[in-house]
Amino acid sequence: MTMLETSTTATESLTRRERVVLAELAEDVTLEEIATRLFVTRNTVKSQVRSVYRKIGVSTRTDAVAWARAHGIR
């Protein structure tokens, strides 16, 4: 599997909500603020963030935001 195929697979494996959370991470807001915006708990956002990180193969918010921008997610 090539790097492009891997990133395409990762992009496709994200749920709609995970894409929303990933886009929100690019904003200068806390997880609590993201949770408030999305009408969920902070723990729900934390779980979704962990899932996104695992699926796209990153371990930091900075890396996740860079990955999102490179893949056209806000």
Automatic annotation (TrEMBL):
Signal peptide: none annotated. Residues 7-72 form the HTH luxR-type domain. CDD domains: LuxR_C_like. One of its GO terms (molecular function) is DNA binding. GO terms for biological process: regulation of DNA-templated transcription. PROSITE patterns: HTH_LUXR_2 (PS50043). Keywords: DNA-binding, Transcription, Transcription regulation. It comes from the Bacteria. InterPro entries: Sig_transdc_resp-reg_C-effctor (IPR016032), Tscrpt_reg_LuxR_C (IPR000792), WH-like_DNA-bd_sf (IPR036388). This is DNA-binding CsgD family transcriptional regulator. The lineage of its organism: Bacteria, Bacillati, Actinomycetota, Actinomycetes, Micrococcales.
